[in-house]
Amino acid sequence: MFSQGHAGANAYARVGVQTGVMGASPHRLVVMLYQGARQAIAQARMHLQQGNIAARGEAITKAIGIVESGLQQALNKDAGGEIAARLDALYTYMSHRLLQANVQQSEQMLVEVDGLLATLEDAWIAIAPDAAKMAAA
């Protein structure tokens, strides 16, 4: 289906991502999770608009996996207190909305979840200097 050139480019991209993950701080890893989930949602929107049902489902499944297995699992509910509990509930909500978006073929729901992730990503990026200071201490 893909030419040799695409396979090489994909392999190169995977190595780049793996290298980025291995050298990333915990704070940067969370940013990468937000970016990955948002990218998967963007792909789902594109596939929804093109009527590509299987690819849409794969992209939404990827976004749900990042939210549940990445962001939600990374929460420290003991140390995070109320903030972690609220994020946990928000991540659960996002997962449900993504599932509904797939079933109902709703771009509006995809846009909603992307907006929530964008807000969290922006807030997470904004605290980067404080996170770096804490890590250095």
UniProtKB/TrEMBL annotation:
Pfam family, one: FliS
Keywords: Bacterial flagellum biogenesis, Cell projection, Chaperone, Cilium, Cytoplasm, Flagellum
GO biological process: bacterial-type flagellum assembly; bacterial-type flagellum-dependent cell motility
GO CC terms in record: cytosol
The keyword Chaperone is assigned to this record: yes
Keyword hit for Chaperone: yes
Subcellular location, principal: cytoplasm
Protein name according to UniProt: Flagellar secretion chaperone FliS
